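ok new one. same drill as before - structure tokens go in, u give me an amino acid for every spot. 327 of them this time. try not to just spam alanines like last time pls lmao
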């Protein structure tokens, strides 16, 4: 794979078309670290990502969670290790493509004694496709402390991986033809690379796979299949990467069950609050999502990521665009 030339004065760094591109995201031997979160520093405050994952198998748009995770990885590379990311607020501005690399541009807004702030802009073809502001906090002792309780659900060992659960539903002939078609489409759309590196297990497969009516809420167990090591920042970036996973589908799933098929759906913005620093994404984590409101072709979704031992690790919020087919 050709390497980009060192930047020189006048080099159009905001236009990355001149960089030859070859992604390893679909390489069966490629793991999580050396593909989806791998960034190359090309200059001060400039990082490039070459290995991009599709959000859907049939569509060349990059998975939004990968852009979130890579933005956090790029911003974290510009702050001292004693500063921990605690909040990320972002907008998906334009659909990114997996056929071209993404350039991440970091603006060091503030370096204080307690907080550091970074603004990240993700660029393709000289245009912004994503922007976010990330705040880092120097660790402090507890002043007050409380937490919600983790839902009581079946453990991951008692559940089937999402694909196996879907195949079991199809073999049982327990759903109508339309629902079976939706499930088959779901199976085709999951990128092979994603299933290779992550294990996802729905807590209630019957509702998750549209076999039963459901409210706009969902719970899944998830973990990375490979050992991610002991770098806490890496686990934070993987967590950010995964927080976009099931939010939009949580909002539309009850309506698909009733026959609704969106003509367009994608994330508009995405917020992440990291409450605890010590957790592992190669251990089982429970991701709980609920959509409290939908209207005006937008849906609002909130999420909570829990560690296996019951700690609330991350809270999320997202607004998504959901359009109906034109009559």
């Amino acid at each position: 794979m050709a390497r980009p030339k060192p930047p020189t004065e006048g080099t159009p760094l905001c236009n990355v078309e001149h960089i030859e591109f070859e992604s390893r995201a679909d390489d069966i031997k490629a793991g999580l670290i050396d593909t989806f979160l791998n960034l190359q520093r090309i200059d001060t405050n400039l990082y490039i990502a070459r290995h991009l994952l599709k959000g859907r198998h049939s569509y060349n748009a990059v998975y939004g969670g990968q852009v979130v995770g890579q933005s956090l990885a790029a911003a974290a590379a510009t702050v001292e290790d004693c500063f921990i990311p605690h909040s990320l607020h972002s907008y998906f501005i334009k659909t990114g493509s997996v056929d071209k690399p993404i350039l991440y541009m970091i603006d060091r807004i503030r370096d204080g004694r307690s907080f550091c702030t970074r603004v990240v802009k993700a660029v393709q073809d000289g245009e912004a496709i994503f922007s976010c502001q990330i705040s880092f906090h120097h660790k402090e002792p507890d002043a007050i402390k409380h937490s919600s309780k983790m839902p009581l659900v079946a453990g991951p060992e008692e559940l089937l991986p999402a694909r196996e659960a879907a195949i079991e539903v199809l073999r049982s002939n327990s759903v109508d033809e339309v629902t079976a078609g939706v499930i088959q489409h779901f199976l085709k759309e999951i990128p092979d690379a994603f299933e290779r590196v992550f294990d996802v297990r729905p807590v209630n497969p019957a509702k998750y796979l549209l076999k039963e009516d459901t409210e706009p809420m969902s719970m899944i167990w998830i973990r990375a299949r490979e050992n991610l090591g002991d770098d806490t920042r890496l686990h934070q970036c993987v967590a950010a990467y995964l927080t976009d996973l099931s939010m939009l589908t949580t909002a539309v799933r009850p309506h698909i069950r009733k026959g609704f098929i969106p003509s367009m759906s994608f994330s508009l913005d995405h917020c992440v609050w990291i409450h605890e620093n010590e957790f592992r994404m190669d251990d089982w984590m429970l991701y709980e999502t609920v959509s409290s409101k939908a209207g005006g072709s937008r849906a609002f979704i909130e999420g909570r990521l829990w560690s296996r031992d019951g700690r609330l690790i991350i809270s999320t919020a997202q607004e998504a665009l959901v359009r109906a087919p034109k009559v």
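The chain has a mean pLDDT of 89. and btw The radius of gyration is 20 Å.
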